[in-house]
């Protein structure tokens, strides 16, 4: 815990809240500091507001109140500011969000878009850009599949392409929204381990939403429990006891899947 | 207890059946009325018409292909018109489709206006556009091309817009998250997804343009249709038959070429 307090702050959420246009309040006013180089897991059941919180951090979900502040940009505002922030923030999605009919390589190259002007991106990319993308594919162990169509890869491989796309941005922050929710348990652990190792090696800060308590315990430096659109737990994995889990999953009616997961992983 | 419930279900089922029978009867009545209004039940006209048709048929036989070398240039013109009309339609349709599709438009109101423009364009038949352009730029292939292109923008633009609208939004979100601008999102995340559909629409439209440009010749807008109307005016039905057979052969070739191209996109 002290270890985290000492680290520089990479990203700060200030009194931020989200109300969707249909009137649903998805996130109550929340302030959080995310330390440089830390692997933070947002833990909570489906519909708790993890996705909203995560997407508000790069403006995919606009904040209804409050601000996002980064160490480099200060308070992020304006189209230009958000674009600048997104360029240095890699995002990994639950559904991979690849273009199926394009190659893995072409998908990874879309990670470079933020680094180019609109006009420049209509011209062929430089060899340096292409090598950056291939390096990213090599890091996730998929260099040999670079020219394979994305829809011909397995679920785990597609998610690794998704990670490579985020890495190709040369980011200093990675946001991952339920990156392993559509994978089987063994693949989930491998993909998450890969993401964790890369972030550790490169000193990247990562904020990852998960609904599996065991995976959160295994990889997180810090766990933030979300329930009913509020932070209901914040601490290192060792402090995540049964009472804390009840607070996280008791706020909303947990689905049977979550209920069994809790039983399995509670000592 | 369950007996009365079953009675209720059966009664409801009978009411459903009656409603359906009434609906079918109504549709049938409308169809019969339409046939009656257009004179389909006038037996006398058919009695007189069938011998006239037979006479016409006998005059068409055997088809006279003796002037075939005069048809090659107009046929080439028709082919060129169909291709030129298609490329012009594509160039005009793509920007309009991007403005019309709700997921790529600059503003919802602009989307509505663009869709209105597209439906206006396709509601003007190309034959009318052909007459207008012949009056404006004179006889020949050019007015035909302009007529084909302008009418097709309404159709192709609508189909393009629908393809674009149904692009998967998830890769689009991924591109936005990487800091892509609006134009980058369209060129790198939307268009790559829908390119096969756009090509399919375009090639299908080219096939259609070849068939439509034969009709346009009739109003003086160039191509093989011009020869067809000339033969008709000379009452040379054997030549008319030969031209029709030639057109049919070309349509079959163009259609199968187009179908083969579109299969390769899959």
TrEMBL record, chain B:
One annotated Gene Ontology cellular component of this protein: plasma membrane
Compartments, record wording: Cell membrane
Membrane-crossing residue ranges in chain numbering: 20-41, 75-101, 127-150, 215-235, 241-261
Top-level lineage group: Bacteria
Pfam families: BPD_transp_1 (PF00528)
Alphabetic keyword roster: Cell membrane, Membrane, Transmembrane, Transmembrane helix, Transport
Residue stretches making up the ABC transmembrane type-1 domain: 75-258
MF terms (GO), sorted A to Z: ABC-type phosphonate transporter activity
UniProt main location, coarse: membrane
Annotated membrane topology: Multi-pass membrane protein
Xref: PANTHER family: ABC TRANSPORT SYSTEM PERMEASE PROTEIN P69, PHOSPHONATES TRANSPORT SYSTEM PERMEASE PROTEIN
Family: Belongs to the binding-protein-dependent transport system permease family.
Xref: NCBIfam families: PhnE
Protein name: Phosphonate ABC transporter, permease protein PhnE
Organism: Roseicella frigidaeris
Gene: phnE
């Amino acid at each position: 815990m002290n270890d985290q307090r000492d680290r520089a702050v990479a990203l700060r959420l200030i009194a931020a809240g989200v109300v969707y246009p249909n009137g649903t309040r998805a996130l109550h006013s929340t302030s959080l500091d995310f330390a440089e180089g830390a692997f933070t897991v947002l833990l909570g059941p489906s519909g708790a507001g993890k996705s909203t919180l995560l997407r508000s951090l790069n403006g995919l979900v606009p904040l209804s109140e409050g601000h996002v502040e980064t160490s480099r940009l200060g308070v992020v505002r304006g189209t230009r500011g958000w674009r600048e922030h997104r360029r240095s923030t890699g995002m990994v999605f639950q559904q991979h969000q690849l273009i199926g009919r394009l190659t893995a390589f072409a998908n990874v190259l879309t990670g470079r878009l933020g680094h180019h002007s609109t006009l420049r991106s209509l011209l062929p990319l430089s060899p340096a850009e292409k090598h950056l993308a291939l390096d990213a594919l090599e890091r996730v162990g998929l260099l040999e599949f670079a020219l394979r169509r994305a829809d011909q890869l397995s679920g785990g491989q597609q998610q690794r392409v998704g990670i490579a796309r985020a890495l190709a941005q040369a980011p200093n922050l990675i946001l991952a929204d339920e990156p392993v929710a559509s994978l089987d348990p063994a693949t989930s652990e491998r993909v998450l381990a890969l993401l964790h190792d890369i972030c550790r090696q490169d000193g990247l800060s990562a904020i990852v939403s998960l609904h599996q308590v065991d995976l959160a315990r295994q990889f997180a430096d810090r766990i933030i429990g979300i329930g009913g659109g509020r932070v209901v737990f914040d601490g290192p994995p060792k402090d995540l006891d049964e009472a804390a889990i009840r607070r996280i999953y008791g706020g909303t009616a947990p689905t049977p899947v979550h209920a069994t997961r809790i039983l399995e992983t509670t000592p | 207890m369950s007996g009365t419930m079953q009675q209720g279900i059966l009664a409801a089922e009978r009411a459903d059946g009656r409603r359906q029978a009434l609906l079918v009867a109504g549709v049938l009545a409308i169809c019969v009325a339409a046939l009656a209004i257009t004179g389909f039940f006038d037996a006398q006209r058919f009695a007189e018409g069938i011998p006239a048709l037979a006479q016409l048929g006998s005059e068409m036989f055997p088809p006279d292909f003796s002037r075939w070398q005069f048809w090659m240039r107009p046929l080439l013109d028709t082919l060129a018109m169909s291709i030129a009309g298609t490329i012009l339609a594509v160039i005009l349709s793509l920007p309009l489709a991007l403005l019309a599709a709700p997921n790529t438009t600059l503003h919802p109101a602009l989307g509505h206006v663009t869709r209105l423009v597209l439906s206006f364009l396709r509601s003007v038949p190309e034959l009318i556009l052909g007459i207008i352009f012949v009056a404006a730029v004179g006889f020949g292939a050019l007015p035909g091309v302009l007529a084909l292109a302008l009418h097709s923008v309404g159709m192709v633009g609508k189909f393009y817009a629908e393809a674009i609208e149904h692009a998967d939004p998830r890769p689009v979100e991924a591109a936005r998250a990487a800091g892509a601008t609006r134009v980058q999102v369209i060129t790198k995340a939307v268009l790559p997804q829908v390119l096969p559909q756009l090509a399919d629409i375009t090639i299908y439209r080219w096939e259609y343009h070849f068939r439509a440009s034969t009709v346009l010749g009739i109003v003086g807008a160039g191509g093989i249709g011009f020869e067809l109307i000339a033969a008709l005016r000379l009452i040379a039905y054997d030549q008319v038959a030969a031209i029709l057979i030639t057109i049919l052969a070309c349509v079959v070739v163009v259609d199968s070429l187009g179908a083969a191209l579109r299969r390769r996109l899959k």
